[in-house]
Fold each of these.
Amino acid sequence: MHSKILILDFGSQVTQLIARRVREAGVFSEVYPYDVSDEFIRNYGAAGIILSGGPNSVTEGDTPRAPQAVFEIGVPVFGICYGMQTMAEQLGGKVEMGHVREFGYAEVRARGHTALLKDISDFTTPEGHGMLKVWMSHGDKVNDMPPGFKLMASTPNCPIAGMADEERKFYAFQFHPEVTHTVQGQAILTRFVTEICGCKQDWNMPDYIAEAVEAIRQQVGSDEVILGLSGGVDSSVAAALIHRAIGDQLTCVFVDHGLLRLDEGKMVMEMFANNLGVKVIHVDATQQFMGHLAGVTDPEAKRKIIGREFVEVFHAESDKLKNAKWLAQGTIYPDVIESAGKGKKAAHTIKSHHNVGGLPETLNLKLLEPLRELFKDEVRKLGVALGLPHAMVYRHPFPGPGLGVRILGEVKKEFADLLRRADAIFIEELRNTKDEQGQSWYDKTSQAFAVFLPVKSVGVMGDGRTYEYVVALRAVQTQDFMTAHWAHLPHELLGQVSNRIINEVRGINRVVYDISGKPPATIEWE
Ligand SMILES: Nc1ncnc2c1ncn2[C@@H]1O[C@H](COP(=O)(O)OP(=O)(O)OP(=O)(O)O)[C@@H](O)[C@H]1O
Ligand SMILES: O=c1[nH]c(=O)c2[nH+]cn([C@@H]3O[C@H](COP(=O)(O)O)[C@@H](O)[C@H]3O)c2[nH]1
Ligand SMILES: NC(=O)CC[C@H](N)C(=O)O
Ligand SMILES: [Mg+2]
């Protein structure tokens, strides 16, 4: 049995990051909603409990509180932001609605020489104070500490930015150690779970796989599962994991909508059907997709058509199976955060992701989403541990609607064929570079591709006049795809790509490079 950390979620946008940091420390953890019962807390067997942040204010009645048992069962407790505020309130301290709200970077003075912070700091002031560079996001603050607590950290705006009752091993911070902007955040959480809670650092990817496999078997029983396999990272890793769990009960459906990259279909079939022994149905739905897309120029209309036709195909394929009760998806945590955010804040829809998530009721399939707690880089590590080739796991993401959102305006087969070839040249040239560390520009960019512009311009080739189409190259660097910088590719490389495309792809006589960031542009052009 692993020792385990219980994380109680008060609704923060970044709760899963806490779980991720604990995983990175090699310790097992699970996230539960804050309102589990006292009995649950007593029986769970946690080596320590972490209380997350959250959008509410403890100064208002009827807002979330931790089960009282959290503070009674004698295990260490770590409060973060709202978690600190409710800890203070529940143990007899005082929280006030702040007059100054603090969002973003702050420097915090570490105080009190606690077991948690000893020798952790980012720099020392001339007066000899240890300082931490942290990330804050709060309005309320603790004004009086509960009995038994001493001051652990402070800022000018927030005199009680950290507090500790070392007797009971209760620790709390107003800032967020789980985000990477808090430089020592991982060190602080690692120390909490190892030295303060006494957990062994014995939890690793093979254990994760074993537990996920067991959970999938429990959930699915003897039912059949279908999975939309794109050849992208997420659905490939999901397929490998589910296949490990239930073998032939899994059927993957790979849809070729005629808008895939060059040789994509061949590659996916070889990899999965031939090398990994996974059952894959290759559906050539080119006619169906292209037929419905004919004459349609509006980007949202195109996306909706593609989403609808995907569902049609999955529907038809699941009907052919005897006992298909589940639709598996490669949904990962950022997808979950984004959709929750949309529900709460009524944000504008910038793009309708084709997402199989918006499935019609009539499909009558339950969802199986074994990756929904993981971040992209963790999914990649999982893929490698499952034996998928490095090159597949570290591919750039490719959107479900494929070249459909990279051919501006009406999608035509002729355009898709030109774009596929231009794109393959760009990617090949990126892969062929190498810096001193042995990294290629493909590795150093997060996503790179060509875009087809259905406008013609005049050129001169071999003394003859040409009047042909334009291709735009796009390459971006990003952590989370929510914001992105355009990649500063070397001019020689761009020149080489441009030369090859114009020389090798008849029909293209001009290549341009996209130098827009996100925001204000988006990564895809439609
Ligand atoms: N051509 C396709 N055939 C079948 N399913 C698809 C296809 N394209 C996309 N999907 C489904 O849509 C889901 C979402 O696509 P998305 O691009 O976000 O993930 P991915 O393709 O698995 O990974 P990546 O982000 O690396 O491209 C996929 O997990 C897959 O289930
Ligand atoms: O599976 C997907 N279905 C979609 O409909 C879709 N639209 C955009 N993307 C990918 O999402 C990331 C952000 O893209 P944007 O900046 O263009 O919104 C980039 O990685 C895009 O490739 C999609 N992925
Ligand atoms: N990030 C948080 O947990 C915020 C806590 C609380 N809602 C505040 O604004 O102070
Ligand atoms: Mg994809």
Amino acid sequence: MSSLADEPCEACTSDDEPLTSEEYESYLDDLRTDVWEVVDDHHLHAHYEFEDFRDALEFTYEIGELAEEEWHHPDLALAWGEVEVEMWTHKIDGLHKTDFVMAARMDRIYEGYDPAE
Ligand SMILES: C[C@H](O)[C@H](O)[C@H]1CNC2=NC(N)=NC(=O)C2=N1
């Protein structure tokens, strides 16, 4: 589905500047609009829904494994039938392309859990 999910996660350095809304706007085209929003031009927020707690737990674990593989980590909140995600690049205290790549990868993983599918 999303070409962004096929892109590599770029290593970011503290010299990188956070993306402006003009710079990140096009990346949103590759993310689920029913899931993701940008908050204060600073971070991405997602609300994923699941059949039950176990699906939410297993999704959370998969996201954790992805984060370890890419060495880029979201904040995760797990509840019955729900997972909240906050994704930004701490090193630059803002948004980097890698945050959008990670979000697209999460959407791809979610395809296997989406109760609406
Ligand atoms: C030491 C530092 O935490 C590491 O370089 C990585 C780990 N995972 C990370 N994850 C996120 N979201 N932002 C970072 O800046 C980041 N840095």
